[in-house]
Amino acid sequence: MSLDTPKRFDRIIAILIQLQSKRIIRASELAERFEVSERTIYRDIRTIEQCGVPIVSEAGVGYSIMDGYRLPPVMFTREEASSFVAAQKLMEKFTDESMGKYFESAMYKLKSVLRGSEKDWVAALENQVFISPSQELFNKDVPNALEVILESIAEQKQVKLNYQSFGAESPSQRKIEPVGIFHENGFWYLMAWCHLRQEYRQFRTDRIQTICRLEDAFTKEHGNISDHLERPKENDRNESIVKILVDREIARFMSSGKKFYGLIEERFEGDRVEMTFRTEIDCRGFTRWFMMFADYAEIIEPASFRENVRELAEQILESVSQPALHS
Q1: Does domain 5-65 match CATH 3.40.50.720?
Q2: In the predicted model, is pLDDT for residue 50 greater than 80?
Q3: 16 contacts: CB under 8 Å, gap ≥ 6
Q4: CATH of domain 145-230
């Protein structure tokens, strides 16, 4: 027997599982995943066909299993079963109520195909994993927000929502074309084309007051969400480049905030760290964050940020210098 035979067998089984998991899959995707040539994938597909699995292929499109054909349930390893526990706990806390119920139903189906020993393994772990998000990720009054967003993306249909922007006195009505969702700095965000603003905007999911899907189709192609997240923020006209020097011992306590405030570069210089931010310094948020460690830091540029810090420090000094008022 060739030494490559077991490896090829495992790959063929994995290809068969992937064919069941997607409607269409390209040979190039499979070749990239298994780190083999497309010619090797073609041979593996022929082997699967010779075993009686009806595979439909279309040049330039990809491969799929013929509709109506069903394979026996997939068996999971104990390690794969363990991953279900972590996934379930994350879905319970990081999705809205509607999507969480769908996942719970899916988990029952997954657990139903586990062998007895794997079921015991999962049961032993379920009560030993706890996840507590630091923020409310969804508005409890809108239990199906994530479901509507994902349906909209899949079916290319517009969405109408009432959105409470930060600092606004009342919600505004928006008609949007969702591009995708992403989790960053403790919150879920929706990237979408906003018809009101006529540009791509980010909407924090916990600020969505109402949401409903429309029958209007998308008016444009939006591409992948990763393209939008990597795109320079051309519309952030109020942002400035800020450079600071921070003691290395203090810098390690700043990890939770520096990305939130737009860290774009970090360089070590002896016992200090030079940090470069692209941030909005006219807003007091970044200034107040800097003040938490200002006695261990130095502002390199710009001078306007140094002035903002000085003004805030003077206001704080004046406030604490006033005698307390007792009723």
Answers
A1: no
A2: yes
A3: 48, 53, 71
A4: 2.30.30
